[in-house]
UniProtKB/TrEMBL annotation:
NCBIfam families the UniProt entry points to: orc1/cdc6 family replication initiation protein
Name of the featured protein: AAA domain-containing protein
Family: Belongs to the CDC6/cdc18 family.
GO biological process: DNA replication
Top-level taxon of origin: Archaea
Keyword presence, Protease: no
GO molecular function annotations of the record: ATP binding; ATP hydrolysis activity
Domain AAA+ ATPase: 48-196
Key words, A-Z: ATP-binding, DNA replication, Nucleotide-binding
Length: 268
């Protein structure tokens, strides 16, 4: 019923056609990677880093680039990293609890006061090492000003330092956050613009080499996908999905390569 030959002729590694795949290094984002890396570099010397607001539309590479830099901080410099999606942990107590869990503390009992959780974080920073914290989907977080204040004060009061990376689809002027909080955080904005057709084409060429059998995708297919996606917001996840669906369609039909015909078929 489930023949192992499905997908074996054209697609050899579908995971490369997902935005979550850890691809090293990210393509067409050299300047943004350099900015993030340099802002957080002081953590490697137990010094105060620049906090960042990384913003741009969905699928522009924000989280991928932050993940890449965080992995290097862990493996090359021994800096602890914590990554939290604020869709899942949107309240102040939930966020602080998840930070503690990722730092290795057991989950505190429900009802524990916020001050006690902050005390545990302070204890960890005093006893261990510097930490970089990324808050993805920061615009979904409740009590933004309180969280900003909490984490800023922790970094000021402890031996080891804390770096904060806020990731959002919304630019700085779109937040309802008082001027004092932004000033306290001293946050540098890093904009991720939508991918252009040329950038998408470079990304797709890079991924196709890993995902497909050599010569299995006609060059025109990549150009058509890149142009179409660039005209509709530049979300690289859409480009991966279209290419994946075209590859699957070609496989089901017994084709030896992905041609523009299969793009037309999946677009219906």
């Amino acid at each position: 019923m489930f023949d192992d030959s499905y997908g074996s002729e054209i697609i050899r590694a579908e995971e490369y056609l997902t935005a979550d795949h850890p691809h090293h290094p990210p393509v067409e984002r050299d300047a943004e990677l350099h900015t993030i890396r340099d802002a957080l570099r002081p953590l490697t010397k137990r010094k105060t880093p620049e906090n960042l607001l990384v913003y741009g539309p969905p699928g522009s590479g924000k989280t991928t680039c932050v993940n890449h830099v965080f992995e290097a901080l862990e493996t090359e410099a021994g800096v602890k990293t914590v990554q939290i999606n604020c869709w899942q942990y949107s309240t102040r107590p939930a966020l602080l609890t998840e930070i503690l869990i990722q730092l290795g503390y057991p989950a505190p009992r429900k009802g524990k006061p916020v001050d006690e959780r902050l005390g545990k974080l302070r204890e960890w920073l005093d006893r261990n090492r510097s930490v970089a914290i990324a808050l993805d989907e920061f615009d979904q977080l409740e009590d933004k000003a309180a969280i900003v204040y909490d984490l800023h004060m922790l970094s000021q009061q402890t031996e080891n330092k804390l770096g904060l990376v806020l990731i959002s689809n919304i630019p700085p002027d779109g937040f309802v956050l008082d001027e004092r909080s932004w000033s306290r955080l001293n946050c540098r904005a890093v904009e991720f613009k939508p991918y252009t057709a040329e950038e998408l084409l470079a990304i797709l060429k890079d991924r196709v080499e890993q995902a497909f059998r050599p010569g299995a995708v006609q060059p025109e297919v990549l150009e058509l996908v890149a142009d179409s996606v660039a005209d509709n917001g530049g979300d690289c996840r859409d480009a991966f999905e279209r290419l994946l669906q075209a590859g699957r369609r070609a496989t089901r039909e017994g084709a030896r390569e992905v041609t523009p015909q299969f793009l037309e078929e999946i677009d219906g």
